[in-house]
Amino acid sequence: MTIGVPKEIKNNESRVGMTPGGVFELTKKGHTVNVQSKAGEGSGFFDKNYEKVGAVILNTLEDIYTASEMIVKVKEPIEREYPLIREGQIVFTYFHFASSEPLTKAMIASKSICIAYETVEDEEGTLPLLTPMSEVAGRMAIQQGAKYLEKPVKGRGVLLGGVPGVAPGKVLVLGAGVVGIQAAKMAAGLGAHVTILDINMKRLRYVNDVMPPHVVTEFSNEFNIRKHIKTHDLIIGGVLLKGAKAPNLITRDMLKDMRPGTVIVDVAVDQGGCVETTKPTTHEDPIYIIDDIVHYSVANMPGAVPYTSTMALTNVTLPYVLKLANLGWEKATESDDALRKGVNIIRGEVVYDEIIETFGWN
Question: Does the keyword field hold Methyltransferase (predicted)?
């Protein structure tokens, strides 16, 4: 099979869909790998590194899409890429269709085979291709939140860890999944007081067992959310519904109950956000302020640490890329239940129920 690795063109996205190590594994099996020139530079991988392991370097985005049977990338295609994707072409990437009807309609129109990293689901119900980026984003959420709590960027002027004689900052984490646990771990490490909410008591028991005493758990409901947003300095949105739009746990009217300069980091932005006032931002212009509340909702947070993120992502995607290349998408998905759940659109037909439900296409 001929595999194409394009340069990501989303704002400030420096990750790449395949490392030279991945190219080596594919070429060793007799596959051809086309890599767009400079695709890996942002992650520290140069054209010469790819050429040494047998990659074919092509100059343009158009060349990659034209010459490749399968596209392996990181972020969802953006508008410039829509017309480049052709019928029957496999596109293996993060799609997050539930957050974008225009993207969904464009991929339907392309009649391509869309396999989404974020809905590949193993027999234990975990999402192996989403987990590493959730780990990165959860940790980064605290890093970014701590920065935007500073007064020069309109935050409350709170140091999360506090100092002797001054209480630490308070962090509210919505969701005890991968993002939430990683965020709680980082915040706790800084010395902040952390409250983590979830509706899954099994997850809350786990958090209670593994976290230090200054991380407390509570059941998630509107009453508890409204109570805590009044006193917490940093709010992390880490809610995930597999393949579907995230629920709005914080509504516009709740902002008035928060103290001016409170920071919201909505990691769920890729799935539409769990805060009603969330809108996607970029690393170039990451925040906006509504009712004196600082919102940080960068849709590709791990793109800011591309070396770490690329290595973490490709560690888990490569086995699936190899299977797709070796067997073709039909045999690969027939033989692998987890990969089959990643198939969202087949030649113009949406086959993932949560997408259909999100847009009311029943």
Answer: no
